[in-house]
Amino acid sequence: MLALTSLTAAQTTAPAPVSPADPVFDAKCTPTVTLGEGEGDYRVDPDPARKSAFFDVAGSNPEAFMQDIGRKVCHILYRKASEIRQASHLTLVLSPAVGEVSFKSGDGADITVILSTDYLNKVKKEGGDVGSEIRGILFHEMTHMYQQDDSDLGGADGGLIEGIADSVRYRAGFMPGDAEPDKDGHWNDGYSTTAFFLLWLEKRFPDFIYKLNLSMDSQDNIKWTPDAFRVLTGKTVDQLWNEYKTSPD
Predict the structure, then answer these.
(1) Least CB-packed of 2, 163, 208, 246 within 10 Å?
(2) Contact 141, 113 (CB under 8 A)
C-alpha cells in the first residue's frame, strides 16, 4: 500500500472553487448522518477496536465530520444553492466488508455508504495515512450523493460519474499516492483515468467540470449524451481524448 498524499500545488489544475457564504447553500449540503447497522454481508463491525480506525479520525462527532465534507463537496461542484441536487440523509455503515474499500447504495435524498473497517486497518497496519484515506473516500462517495447523474432518464455514463467523483476527491487534496494518468485507456474508463482527463480539460476550459455536472441534471427531462463535451468545448469527446493522449501534461 503506497502512502497517501495531498495534492501539491503543481498537481492541481486550480484551487477548488469556493462559493460565497450562503446559509441556504450550506444547509442543502448538510445531511443528517446516521451510523447504521447494515444488513446481509455488510452488517456493522462488532469489534470496537477495528472501528476505531474511523473514529480516531472522525472524532467524537462523526456527523459533524461528514457534514463538513458534504459542504466542501458542494462548494467544488456548485456555485448556487438552486443548482444543488436534493440529498438529505446519509447512513454510514462501518462494516468489515472484506475485499472492499467502500461503496454507495441508494440514490437521491437517502443514501448508504459502506466503509470497510478491514481496509482501513490494512492501511493503518501498512503505515498509510488513514486520515487522508478516510477523507478521500468520503469526498468520493459524498460526491455521488450530490452530483448530477441524469438518473431519471437512465443515467449518464457510469465511468464518467466515477471520474467526476475522483476529480472532486483530488481537488479537495486527497489524491492517493499511486494515482496517475492512464492515457492508454478510454475517456470513460472511470476513476483516476477519467478524473485526470477531466482535470486536464479543466485547465483548458475553466469551470468545465462544474458545467459538465450541470449538464447531467436529472430533473431537466433531457437525456445526457457525450455531445455535452462538444457543446462545452466545441470539440467532440473523442477529439479531446486524442489531444489529451498526445499532450505532455
Answers:
(1) 246
(2) yes
Main-chain dihedrals φ then ψ at residue 33, nearest 5 degrees: -115, 130
Domain boundary among 131, 146, 161: 146
- The closest alpha carbon to 111, from 134, 84, 138, belongs to 138
Q: For residues 71 and 78, give the distance between their C-alpha atoms in angstroms, rounded to a whole number.
A: 10
Claim to verify: residue 105 and residue 160 sit in the same structural domain: no
74 with 194, same domain?
no
Residue 199 and residue 110 share a domain: no
Give me the domain span that covers residue 83.
17-146
Other CB atoms within a 10 A radius of the CB of residue 219 amount to 12
Same structural domain for residues 109 and 43?
yes
Examine the fold and report which residue of 90, 114, 146 is the final residue of a domain before the chain moves on: 146
- The domain total for the chain is 2
User: Per-residue pLDDT tens for 3-48?
Assistant: 333 333 334 444 455 555 688 999 999 999 999 999 999 999 999 9
| Per-residue model confidence as pLDDT tens digits over 100-141 | 999 999 876 789 999 999 999 999 999 999 999 999 999 999
Query: Cell digits for 225?
Result: 449524451
Mean pLDDT over the full length of the chain:
91
Strand residues in 84-227 grouped as ranges (E)? 89-95, 102-107, 110-116
The structure's pTM equals 0.90
Residues 211 and 136 placed together within one structural domain of the fold? no
CA pair distance 130, 108, nearest whole angstrom: 29
Could you tell me which residues come within 8 angstroms of residue 112 by beta carbon, excluding any fewer than 6 positions away?
A: 36, 90, 91, 92, 93, 104, 105, 106
